[in-house]
Automatic annotation (TrEMBL):
PANTHER family: N-(5'-PHOSPHORIBOSYL)ANTHRANILATE ISOMERASE. InterPro entries: Aldolase_TIM, PRAI_dom, RibuloseP-bd_barrel, TrpF_fam. Pathway: Amino-acid biosynthesis; L-tryptophan biosynthesis; L-tryptophan from chorismate: step 3/5. Transmembrane segments: none annotated. This is N-(5'-phosphoribosyl)anthranilate isomerase. Keywords: Amino-acid biosynthesis, Aromatic amino acid biosynthesis, Isomerase, Tryptophan biosynthesis. The lineage of its organism: Bacteria, Pseudomonadati, Pseudomonadota, Gammaproteobacteria, Lysobacterales. Belongs to the TrpF family. The gene is trpF. It holds the Pfam family PRAI. Signal peptide: none annotated. Its EC number is 5.3.1.24. It catalyses: N-(5-phospho-beta-D-ribosyl)anthranilate = 1-(2-carboxyphenylamino)-1-deoxy-D-ribulose 5-phosphate. One of its GO terms (molecular function) is phosphoribosylanthranilate isomerase activity.
Amino acid sequence: MTRIKCCGMTRIEDALLAAQLGADAIGVVMTAHSKRQVSVAQAKAIVEAMPPFVTTVALFMDDDTGFVQEVIDVVRPSLLQFHGTESDEWCRQFGHPYLKAIAMGEGAAALYQLRDHPHAAGLLLDGHGLGEAGGSGKVFDWSLMPHDVKQPLILAGGLTAANVAAAIRIAQPWAVDVASGVESAPGIKDPHKLRDFIAAVRSTANP
Ligand SMILES: O=C(O)c1ccccc1NCC(=O)[C@H](O)[C@H](O)COP(=O)(O)O
């Protein structure tokens, strides 16, 4: 079964709908590099509104140590997700489980980064280029998804209800992650697109 993370939540009602429709995780983007940035107070309200068994993820991109620690202390997310040039050692300093995003914009040449984060709980392969923000809607070549990496791999980048079944069949990821593909505007989720996306994932077999 492929897990589903819906990212870039800015409204409690969108995050609750995603959870009700069967999303396994929701993400709140904390970094100022994003059109979907939420305040610490907004993120806390979204995280606290989530029902049991929904994983909450707080996203950063080359942010200050103090800010990451403040989010851990106040928002209390289940997981962190780092989207910038953060090293394995830097990500580990918080003693909190995290995902590391791998920028796949350069294609096969980007795969070297997979070896650099042995302590990440999972690796999120995203379609954007190195140094670019996520939530870009950019797709990468799904056939590049490796099958010899120990950590769970999360597929992201330009996924929609129309292409996610093909993406799962080709990449066979542990989970898929979507932001812009289920939105009507940055940070505003479209209920129909959310429903169609989650239904498309659930109806696709993934061994
Ligand atoms: O979503 C953002 O605005 C964002 C900004 C900076 C760093 C990461 C960001 N999002 C990361 C995500 O997890 C997205 O869900 C992922 O990049 C997929 O986005 P999309 O291609 O729009 O589905």
